[in-house]
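User: I'm new to structure prediction. If I give you an amino acid sequence, what do you actually give back? Let's try with this one:
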Amino acid sequence: MEENQTERERGLALGALLLTHLRRVSTFLYLLIVLFTIQIVARIFSLWQGISVIVNIYLYVFSFYLIFIFSTIDLKYLKTLYRDFYKKKGDYILFSVTRLAPFALIFFVTAVFTTINYYGDTFWPWRPLLELLDGRFSNIVFYSLMLLVILKMKKEPRITIPLFLFISVIYFLVYKLVYTFSPSGLSISLLKYLQISVALFFLLNEFVNLREKIAKLIVQSLILGVAVYFSLVGIFIAFHRFSDSDTYRYMRSALILLKLGYRFPLEELQNQVVKTNNPYLLSTVIYYTEENDPTIPLGADRWETYLAAGNSETSNDIARYLRPRGIGVSCEVLGLVAERESERNGEALMESESLMEYTAWNCNDDFDPLIRRYGRGNWYYRAWFIRTASMAGSTKSIPLLMGALTGTDVRLGEEAYRALVTITGIDREGRYRGRFNDIDFITAIGNYVRDLSLQDAPR
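Assistant: Good question. You get back a string of structure tokens that encode the predicted 3D arrangement of the chain. For your 459 residues, that looks like this:
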């Protein structure tokens, strides 16, 4: 009798049920360990990086199969056994083993994958850790939860598979829409909170499986969601408060808090920007600064330094900030930035409309530094210059535009034609749009330049 009781206790022990079901996925788990080993070797010796893609795909296969295995557990039968043996604690223990444990394992292997994948990064291991806490790689957990809920419906595969795919796509689209139209602030905090609360509700409701307790479960999920959400926020605040101001974990935790709508790190980051020469950090700080409209305490020389050190994207962000505040910089620096970026990433330069508008405003009376670079500039610089000259209404640029108009490059000629129409006001009706190098149009531009010269001549 005592032996039977002992065997029963062993069978109901915390680890027994978990190990029994983990053995059913042991082959998948061993293969995952092998893949992790190969991934480590590939990262250390800078071998084929495609292994990371393979491991990431396999993580989904492993996670979904793990959830499938645990979804087959007969909870109704086990609840009776665990309640008899553990009394009031029975449900909590069973929930921890059969529901929390598999999701904890999924998060753990995702964390291992992310840590390995970022190995060699300048900010390893803090970068993968903070990215995980921020939820960047945790979608696999939510997809696994969706699968569990759908599997418990016990429908045919022809229903469950399309339903799972449909819900996954809807979840992805909602997530992307929120981040696209409101990438920071209260909406992101609310999204995080709802993610946590909804996940907790479905997990609890699937385990309890009693309709009369749904209202109670909703309240419990909302309360637990608050606790989990603010625990995460507290972790980021701790990283921010107890890290040196020049470390990655300080910067990244501050940016995560700003994204969640907490504004207290902004002034500290602005001061940090002043101390460092980091245009990429500045670009992010500018984004959050514009929402609150305080002024970043930088002089023109420092703005020039940031412009010179950044790329087309950061320069565009800086220009968007400087223009409405009437802050001017050297046109020589702007010409240097445009010339360099035309060689580095010409397409990005052509998309930097704020940089064009700012240069047109800032250099309206001093186009010479831009004009000097035109002769040696590549196609992207010349096109950028033409659009900028058009925005500025620069009559000094007309000789260069005439050269492009009559040259062999059709695309550059079209750019020059549009700029000349804007600057001179000639052919606004578009008669020469399709034949912009027509002699009549060229003659009209020539007459405009001559009249302009006569007006400027001393009397």
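You can read the tokens as a compact description of the fold. Here is one thing that stands out. DSSP finds 24 helices and no strands in the chain.
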